[in-house]
TrEMBL record:
Origin: domain of life: Eukaryota
Protein name: Protein FAN
Transmembrane segments: none
Entry-linked SMART domains: Beach
Originating organism: Culex pipiens
Residues covered by the BEACH domain: 278-433
Any Pfam family: Beach
Length: 433
């Protein structure tokens, strides 16, 4: 099966991917498109998939990975309509015409690179199987929503999303065993770094099933056998007690992190899951983990990960990514004497208080501020941008998603641990761990 290049990271934050269609992107001579031309004037076409999302449509060519993905935001669309040729044509007209002022090219030559903004034109998409009449009204509604003010736009999109998702029920044919007893079924959002994907979470007496509302995943349903669950943890998501993280193993370690609509339904799902006979996760007591660490049975790394987990931090959420403190403060010596206390950072103080000179300047600045605007530290020790500062080379797509298709200035890129630590000691706005 050919791997798609399209991912939710190519969309705007909070944007929802609905569904896709098999289409031809019709190409005209000199790339000049005109509604007066018939299909016989098209020199060629690109076969691909047209992704319908809540704020844009994205075209992905099927057979040529060198072709860029084309993203057309509804807010940049001048007109969305059925294309009507002016003279008789042998081809049945099932063509969508999108006229836009600008569009975006992504993954050109299949290389992760900054997105390219292009001047607009008219795109013609010939639908293979779907009937255009069934979908053009939805596209026009989404286009109309993009012309509204932000609050009204979000409300209209939320209404459209709610209507679409309420029509989707869990397909019982995906049950591993038709004799399974369905316990409960809730709407949830799957949480991954910088993206949220809605779906349904269903509990039976033997399995947990997650069915996304779209086809972004390789399999239409994620099946988690209760017997294979290794950890089952309540989490906070966006400072609300609505998250739930499942870890299981079916030959390889896997993870599903979801958020519920509210804490009540989250707690209900948690309670009903733990009551099933096949559920056998034993909750670990923090004191026992600390004792294992003190006796060298687990590493410093694993113990810090456990402490981060207690604080609701997870790799799936960049806003609550695991934090590892600066431990060593000497990054200039060729050799370190780990028995020398002076090579270690003072862990009784936050980063902003490690340099007394800078701390004094911060206090003076704070005193000079108005009573209703006072603050000591002007930035946080961890945030999505700070996390990706370290991880940009490993996850460049995340940085492009966070910064609207651009990488940060080269002078602000992570290069040396020594330079980063030095900056954290002297800069008045840098307090990252």
């Amino acid at each position: 099966m050919e791997k798609e290049r399209f991912s939710l990271l190519l969309l705007e934050p909070g944007e929802i991917y609905f569904e896709d269609f098999s289409v031809d992107l019709l190409l005209q001579p000199d790339d000049q498109q005109s509604q007066s031309k018939s299909s016989s004037s098209f020199q060629s076409s690109l076969i691909g998939r047209l992704k319908m999302c809540s704020k844009s449509v994205v075209f992905e060519a099927k057979d040529d990975i060198r072709q860029p993905l084309i993203k057309i935001a509804y807010k940049d669309c001048l007109q969305i309509r059925r294309w009507e040729p002016t003279r008789l044509d042998t081809m049945e007209c099932n063509v969508l015409a999108i006229e836009c002022s600008h569009y975006t090219e992504m993954l050109n030559d299949n290389v992760v690179q900054p997105y390219q903004q292009k001047d607009g034109k008219v795109f013609l998409f010939n639908f293979h199987y779907a009937k255009l009449d069934d979908y053009i009204q939805q596209l026009c509604q989404l286009h109309r929503a993009s012309t509204l003010h932000a609050y009204e736009q979000n409300s209209m999109i939320a209404t459209i999303v709610f209507s679409r998702h309420n029509r989707v029920k869990f397909n019982p044919l995906w049950l591993e065993n038709l004799y399974e007893k369905i316990i409960c079924d809730y709407q949830v959002d799957e949480i991954n770094p910088l993206v949220v994907n809605p779906g349904r979470l269903l509990l039976t007496n033997a399995f947990v099933y997650f069915q996304p509302y779209n086809n972004i995943q390789r399999y239409p349903v994620v099946k988690i056998r209760l017997k294979t669950i290794q950890s089952f943890t309540k989490r906070r998501f966006l400072l609300r007690h609505v998250g739930l993280e499942l870890r299981w193993s079916d030959g390889s370690d896997q993870l599903l992190y979801v958020s519920f609509r509210n804490q009540t339904v989250r707690d209900d799902f948690y309670a009903k899951t733990t009551q099933q006979d096949d559920f056998s996760v034993v909750e670990q007591i923090p004191e026992s983990i600390t004792l294992k660490w003190q006796n060298g049975l687990i590493s410093n790394y694993d113990y810090l990960l456990y402490l981060n987990s207690l604080a609701d931090r997870t790799y799936q959420d960049l806003t609550q990514y695991p934090v590892f403190p600066w431990v060593i403060c000497d990054y200039t010596s060729e050799e370190l004497d780990l028995g020398d206390p002076t090579v270690y950072r003072d862990l009784t103080k936050p980063v902003g208080a490690l340099s007394q000179e800078r701390l004094q300047r911060l206090k003076e600045r704070c005193e000079e501020m108005g009573d209703d605007q006072k603050f000591l530290y002007g930035s946080h020790y961890s945030a999505p941008g700070l996390v990706l500062f370290y991880l940009v080379r490993k996850y460049p797509k995340l940085m492009l998603c966070l910064q609207n298709g651009r990488f940060d200035h080269p002078d602000r890129m992570f290069n040396k641990v020594e330079d980063v630590y030095s900056n954290c000691m002297i800069n008045m706005a840098d307090f990252k761990e």
